[in-house]
Design brief:
The protein is α+β, with helices and mostly antiparallel strands and about 50 residues long. The chain contains 1 helix and 2 strands. The protein has a two-stranded antiparallel ribbon with strand order 1-2. The radius of gyration is 10 Å and the shape is globular.
């Protein structure tokens, strides 16, 4: 099962297909991550708490 490399949360294969870089089986950050966000093609620290 695919998972987030940052927090370990489960993500769907469809989510991985859309948001993971080519060749990756897992994503670097997911919607459950409170401390990281996707920013274009990179991942960065969140600037504020997400609700």
């Amino acid at each position: 099962m695919p998972e987030c490399l940052n927090c370990g949360a489960f993500v769907t294969e469809k989510y991985v297909r859309v948001f993971a870089p080519d060749g990756y089986a897992d994503v670097r950050v997911c919607p459950a991550c409170e401390d990281k966000v996707r920013d274009g093609g990179t991942v960065r620290d969140a600037r504020s708490k997400r609700l």
